[in-house]
Design a protein that fits this description.
Layout lengths: L6 E6 L3 H12 L4 E7 L2 H10 L4 E5 L1 E2 L2 E2 H10 L5 E6 L4 H9 L2 E6 L4 H17 L8 H9 L15 H16 L6 H8 L3 H13 L3 E6 L7 E6 L3
Parallel strand pairs: 1-2, 1-3, 3-6, 6-7
Antiparallel strand pairs: 4-5, 8-9
Helix pairs in contact: 2-3, 5-6, 7-8, 7-9, 8-9
Length: 232
C-alpha cells in the first residue's frame, strides 16, 4: 500500500476541457492531489515509468487506443495503481471487461462533482480498510469491499432514476449551501422535469434521511414545502 500523505491521482483524458474539469474536481477534494494530466494512453504509460501514483482517472476512448488496453499494459509493466474508468461508453460488455482487468469504479460521462466525489471518497475508504497486513476475518473483507459499492443505488423506488436523482440532489445541495431551501417547483425548473416528478425525488431524499422539509409561508395562499439538504 502507498504510504501516508495525499492520494496522488493521474488524470488521463484526451479532451482538454474535460481534462481541466477533472483536474479541478480532484483538487477540490481534501486528501487528494493531481500528480499530472495527460491526454493519451502512451503519455500515461510513460509518466508511470517515472513516477507512481495511487489512483488513475482514466478516459476509455483515447486517441491512441482503448483505455482498457492501457490498463492491461500497466499491469504487465507492474504498475499497481487502482483505476477509475471515466467514459461515455454504456456497453455492458465493456463494463465486464473493465471489471476483469481490475477497474475499481466506472463513472459515466457527463457527471457532476458530487458524483465523482462520492466515488473517490468511497475508494479512499476501501483503500483505508485494506491498509493492514492481514484481515481479522470475513467481516473485515466484506467491509472493505462494501466501501466501493453504493448502497443507495439498488433501493431506488420504481420509476426513479439515478441520473435524475443526482441532478435533483445537486440542485438541493446548491440551494442549501446558498442558505436557502428549494421548492418542488424550483427544483423542477432547475432539473428540467415536472413539478410532480421533482417532488417525488425530493420526498425520496427526505424518506432516506438526506433532506428535510418544512412549510414555507408566503404572503398569500397555502404554504409551500421547502426542502433542505440534511447535514450529517
Amino acid at each position: 500500500m502507498p504510504g501516508p500523505g495525499p492520494i496522488s491521482v493521474l488524470v488521463v483524458e484526451d479532451d482538454p476541457v474535460a481534462a481541466d474539469a477533472h483536474r479541478l474536481y480532484v483538487q477540490r477534494l481534501a486528501g487528494f492531489q493531481v500528480a499530472a494530466v495527460v491526454h493519451t494512453g502512451g503519455a500515461a504509460l510513460r509518466f508511470l515509468e517515472k513516477q507512481s501514483v495511487d489512483l488513475i482517472l482514466l478516459d476509455l476512448n483515447l486517441p491512441d487506443g482503448h483505455g482498457l488496453q492501457v490498463v492491461r499494459k500497466m499491469r504487465a509493466a507492474g504498475h499497481t495503481a487502482d483505476v477509475v474508468a471515466v467514459t461515455s461508453a454504456r456497453d455492458l460488455g465493456v463494463v465486464r471487461q473493465a471489471v476483469s482487468v481490475g477497474v475499481v469504479q466506472y463513472l459515466l460521462k457527463p457527471f457532476t462533482f458530487p458524483s465523482l466525489r462520492d466515488r473517490l471518497e468511497r475508494w479512499a475508504r476501501y483503500r483505508s480498510e485494506l491498509a493492514g497486513g492481514e484481515a481479522s476475518g470475513q467481516d473485515e473483507v466484506d467491509r472493505a469491499l462494501a466501501a466501493l459499492r453504493n448502497p443507495e443505488a439498488s433501493v431506488l423506488p420504481k420509476g426513479l432514476s439515478g441520473p435524475t436523482l443526482e441532478a435533483v440532489t445537486v440542485a438541493l445541495r446548491r440551494a442549501t449551501e446558498e442558505g436557502e431551501g428549494i421548492s418542488a417547483n424550483a427544483a423542477a425548473q432547475a432539473v428540467g422535469v415536472s413539478r410532480i416528478t421533482a417532488r417525488r425525488y425530493l420526498e425520496h431524499l427526505v424518506d432516506t434521511g438526506r433532506a428535510v422539509r418544512a412549510p414555507q409561508y408566503g404572503a398569500v395562499g397555502r404554504p409551500e414545502l421547502s426542502y433542505r439538504w440534511a447535514s450529517r
